[in-house]
Specification:
Keywords: Flavoprotein, Oxidoreductase
Helix content: 25-40%
Bound molecules: flavin-adenine dinucleotide
Structural class: alpha/beta
GO molecular function, one term: oxidoreductase activity
Number of domains: 2
CATH architecture of the largest domain: 3-Layer(bba) Sandwich
Shape: globular
Number of strands: 22
Protein name: FAD-binding protein
């Protein structure tokens, strides 16, 4: 591991972009498989007819995506898979992807969306909730002080051009807050509004002209050639069909990945979405792109006892900084005081919790605290769930409920410039958050990213049949996936077993309380898994149709890379900032660490760099 320091006031430069080459892709891919001792034989697939072709992939939506055969003029023309041309390609159909799509469509682009799950029910946006919570107009908008201020300023300026209130009400905000006379409370004056924001936007999109979704499609790699992104590729999960999407412009919107941490106190899962396994992000990493903010995550208190309540607060109960008054220690004392003016700050809240539990001895035996709702109500869905659980005989208001901090959002996405473009030309990413996204952030970054991607796609339009592609890279990826599916080891270990090992190690190193010892232990275990377990990982099911073991095995490579990167980045950051406490360095260190940390693959090593950004132009908030 190397750590260097670099100044980049606006994020990456175009010079950086051109440094990324196809070579780094091949190298990254080789590292991944080298580590697992699987071998790849790219050219052997050229010309052979594969099962996906026989089964035939599911038909694509007619609007926005046109299925075409690659022309004979392309080099090393492969067969056995389908090539699809798109204008704007969005990977991930959650809240962020939807906002990018709406914005790009409104500027006359055609949008093809790829989603790993069943769209509208997938992702964190699909599974968890429908609230619109804002850090729009609060000083906390740049709460760690280390976001790309120029990108944020641009995004806010762009979004402010719209009439926000009308936009919210007409385009999704079905249940805005009302005052006692029944009048709508304008969003602009409210920090928080409740409504079917995401779902309504998805409904709008579904019927929009120029929009198409290919769902249950898992992107496994990006098509990056000569420093430019030409699209993405991956597997249609129901059939196993391999497809390549060529696009004028591509955006990553695949959500935060908490699945590498995934050890929710009583079970091996986290409250983020199990499909968010950083596939696109780690594909970018393997191809030489810098991944930012992997040390940061978001945590909330999730219930652990009675065990039946152990589920996300969207479906169970939980508490965060806004329910601080219901949180009690092991002596029955309230943990947070009403006089504490910082308590509603989520980072402060989590740091305080970490200290109370791990240092001050005020936690429960399970490293949690107690939630006592009493006769009060929790907010939103949590309040609804209290009623629901009581109907099932669970005494939420009378029993002591143990709750412990669990990860629900995570950073770890490609670094972007002020136009939301990554280091690779034509590849955008709407996430620019240290510690994970929220819905308001996805709204303003999403709309702005859609605007910038539309602008870029327009500049690329001249090539009617999509960009020209060197198919060799496609065959390398195809061979990698095939090798994972067909590899057998005598002492084989199932992909889910490997996943649990990654999750336990991730949990050890990436909690709200991080010590050098815990992180070193976590890293040692992750490296052992890479060396000992990945080579043994065997997909017992060899079919192509809905092969979930194959999917898990592919994902494990990404989870392992992200876990190792995240723990190492946390170890490097010798201060306390964000939603966790670093035991040996309990204070914020703005002299040395008021910067973004990025990780990239160089000479088969994870290399870390510090990147400083211009701060947010706060005058944008006052206009
Ligand atoms: C329990 C919980 C409560 C929350 N509460 C709040 C709150 O009160 N207020 C707030 O503002 N925020 C809250 N958040 C955060 C907020 O919900 C998320 O930040 C936001 O919904 C994430 O949207 P997204 O589009 O970035 O990710 P997602 O909604 O997760 O979308 C990512 C999409 O990418 C797809 N995908 C993943 N990998 C691939 C691949 N390889 N190929 C193709 N597609 C892929 C997934 O299927 C998914 O549909 C909460 C989050 C959780 C988990």
């Amino acid at each position: 591991m190397k750590l260097t320091q670099k100044q980049a006031p606006h994020g990456c430069t175009s010079a950086d972009r051109h440094k990324l080459s196809r070579r780094s892709f091949l190298k990254g891919g080789a590292l991944m498989l080298g580590a697992s001792t699987l071998t790849i034989g790219a050219p052997q697939l050229i010309g052979c007819s594969t099962e996906p072709n026989e089964n035939g992939p599911a038909p694509l939506n007619e609007v926005g995506a046109s299925a075409v055969e690659a022309t004979a003029t392309e080099s090393a023309l492969p067969d056995g898979y389908q090539v699809v041309n798109a204008d704007v390609l969005i990977i991930g159909g959650g809240n962020l992807g939807v906002n990018i799509a709406l914005s790009a469509l409104s500027e006359g682009r055609e949008v093809t969306m790829l989603d790993k799950g069943v769209w509208r029910h997938s992702g964190v946006s699909g599974m968890s909730w429908d609230y619109f919570a804002g850090r729009y107009f609060t000083p906390a908008i740049s709460y760690l002080g280390i976001e790309n201020g120029k990108a944020l300023t641009n995004a806010l300026s762009f979004t402010k051009e719209r009439d926000r209130y009308v936009y919210q009400v007409n385009h999704g905000q079905t249940l805005p807050d009302r005052d006692e006379k029944g009048q709508y409370l304008p969003f602009i004056n409210e920090n928080r509004t409740q409504g079917q924001f995401c779902r309504r936007h998805m409904d709008n999109l579904r019927t929009a002209n120029g929009f198409g979704v290919d769902e249950q499609f898992m992107v496994t790699s990006l098509l990056i050639q000569d420093g430019k992104c030409l699209g993405a590729m991956g597997i249609h999960l129901p059939t196993g069909a391999f497809r390549v999407y060529r696009a004028n412009a591509t955006a990553i919107a695949t959500g935060g990945c908490c699945w590498f941490y995934g050890w929710m106190t009583v079970g091996s899962y986290s409250i983020n979405n199990p499909d968010n396994t950083a596939d696109a992000e780690m594909a970018a990493f393997r191809q030489g792109l810098a991944i930012a903010n992997s040390e940061f995550a978001c945590y909330d208190l999730m219930s652990i006892n009675p065990p039946g309540l152990a589920c996300a607060f969207g479906g169970g109960i939980g508490a965060d900084a806004q329910e601080y008054q219901f949180v009690f220690d092991n002596a029955g004392e309230r943990l947070f005081s009403d006089d504490d003016e910082n308590v509603s700050d989520r980072n402060y809240f989590n740091q305080f919790l970490a200290k109370a539990i791990a240092i001050d001895g005020r936690g429960t035996e399970s490293n949690g605290v107690f939630l006592n709702v009493g006769d009060h109500g929790l907010r939103y869905g949590n309040a609804r769930n209290v009623d629901l659980l009581e109907r099932f005989g669970v005494g939420v208001r009378t029993d002591q409920i143990q709750i412990a901090p669990e990860m629900f959002e995570h950073g770890g996405s490609p670094i972007v410039d002020e136009n939301m473009m990554t280091e690779v030309e034509g590849l955008f990413c709407g996430r620019n958050f240290p510690g994970g996204a929220d819905v308001a952030g996805n709204y303003y970054y999403g709309l702005y990213t859609g605007h910038k991607i539309a602008e870029y796609a327009a500049s690329q339009e001249s090539k009617a049949d999509g960009p020209s592609v060197n198919w060799e890279d496609v065959n390398v990826e195809r061979a990698r996936l095939e090798a994972i599916r067909t590899h057998r080891a005598d002492d084989g270990v199932r992909p889910l077993q490997v996943r649990q090992m990654i999750q336990e190690a991730g949990f050890t190193g990436m909690g709200v309380y991080r010590t050098t010892e815990l992180m070193e232990k976590s890293l040692a275990e992750l490296r052992r898994i890479r060396e000992d377990e990945l080579p043994r990982m065997t997909v017992a099911d060899s079919s192509l149709v809905f092969n979930t073991e194959w999917k898990h095995a592919i994902e494990n490579y990404n989870l392992l890379d992200l876990a190792e990167m995240s723990v190492q980045a946390s170890l490097n950051r010798e201060e306390t900032r964000g939603s966790y406490m670093r035991a040996e360095f309990p204070e914020k260190d703005n002299v040395n660490w008021n910067c973004v940390q990025v990780c990239r693959l160089q000479d088969d090593q994870m290399v870390f760099e510090k990147v400083s950004f211009e701060p947010l132009d706060a005058s944008v908030l006052e206009q």
